[in-house]
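Morning. Coffee machine broken again, so started the prediction first thing and wrote up yesterday's gels while waiting. Chain of 199 residues, entered below exactly as on the submission form.
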Amino acid sequence: MTTIQSNQRLTSPNPKPLCQIVGFACLTGFILDILVMTFPLQLGNLAWRVGFLQQLGDRSIILLFGIALLMYGVIDFTPWRKRLAFICLGLGVAFILSSILMISDGFALRERAVIEINAQQDQMQTQIQKVKENPKLVPQITPEKLQQASQTVVSQAESAKQNAQTGTFKTSFSGFGNLLVVGLALIGLGQYGIRPSRF
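Came back before lunch.
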């Protein structure tokens, strides 16, 4: 009975190759996702950049999970572990810088949205003013209806501005948080991989 139990302990499978397989699968899936999201590349387009960084932040946990599994899978191979650790450090810094860019672009996108809403509001108010000055253009519209239309334009513009500010704040803060946390975790993983082995 004791011999059978000790043989079972000796032949238990090594989990490290399994971690390597799952780690490679996670990294491959992450890279393919990022490549698909990247095209068509529009780095100068503010809205595209914010959307890309948001999606990158949302998917970054797969990258972190894959690298952590791969690190565990190669923990016994010092050269591979150190290479992977330096990659983690580089990616961590890139993610932290991306989180700062996400906040900056989010504020710029919010300001742009407010400017566009103001321009549309001014254009509609100008059209209403033209009708007020020349009632013969649209004779069936009364001054009361024009006043109501003007108030509707103002309230809709304010609502649109509020929605734009809230939406961009949520998107920016969420993306910033994801990118920053994963960046810090990757730096921690890199530091863990660089330190000497204790076997």
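The helical segments are 2-10, 15-38, 46-73, 78-133, 143-194. Going to sketch it on the whiteboard this afternoon.
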